[in-house]
From TrEMBL:
Biased composition (Basic and acidic residues): 107-119
Name of protein: Mannose-6-phosphate isomerase, cupin superfamily
Acidic residues bias (residue ranges): 120-133
Highest classification ranks of the organism: Bacteria, Bacillati, Actinomycetota, Actinomycetes, Geodermatophilales
The UniProt record lists the keyword Chloroplast: no
Cleaved signal peptide residues: none
Protein species of origin: Geodermatophilus siccatus
InterPro entries: Cupin_2, Flavonoid_dioxygenase-like, RmlC-like_jellyroll, RmlC_Cupin_sf
Keyword Cell cycle listed: no
Swiss-Prot/TrEMBL keywords: Isomerase
Listed GO MF terms: isomerase activity
PANTHER family registered for this protein in UniProt: LIGAND BINDING DOMAIN PROTEIN, PUTATIVE (AFU_ORTHOLOGUE AFUA_6G14370)-RELATED, QUERCETIN 2,3-DIOXYGENASE-RELATED
């Protein structure tokens, strides 16, 4: 029987200032925390076969989903269905901290990317591929 995997997510998310940190990867889902610096963004993207649920821990930002815009802040949750163009932009003076669940996993198990540039380079080089099987 598997042991309980437990996070106090706000504490966990505030513990790191990495752009992206994979906390846990399962067969069907993945838990990732992100910190977007003031003026920064995730970057417009589409996950063709992956659903994504983002929950905001602190900071303020703007969700841009299929051409629509919505302000987001602590306690907000945004669902991005597979195949949907999206971006999240930090519009406030403080880091925008969030956690996201991908289903199925999107990133390499245990991946840590300090900056967006590092994350983009890992994706382009093929180093940030999710586990298979």
């Amino acid at each position: 029987m598997a042991s309980v995997i437990h996070y106090t997510i706000a504490t966990e998310a505030e513990k790191y200032d990495d752009f992206r940190r994979v906390l846990w990867t399962g067969k069907n889902t993945q838990l990732v925390i992100m910190t977007i610096p003031p003026g920064g963004e995730i970057g417009e993207e589409v996950h063709e076969d992956i659903d994504q649920i983002l929950t905001f821990v602190s900071g303020t930002g703007e969700a841009r989903i299929s051409g629509s815009k919505k302000q987001v802040a602590q306690g907000d949750l945004v669902v991005v269905p597979a195949g949907t163009k999206h971006n999240f932009v930090n519009t406030g003076p403080n880091p925008l901290v969030l956690y996201t669940v991908y289903g199925p996993p999107e990133h390499a198990d245990g991946a840590v990317h300090r900056t967006k540039e590092e994350a983009d380079a890992a994706e382009e080089s093929g180093e940030d591929e999710p586990p298979t099987g």
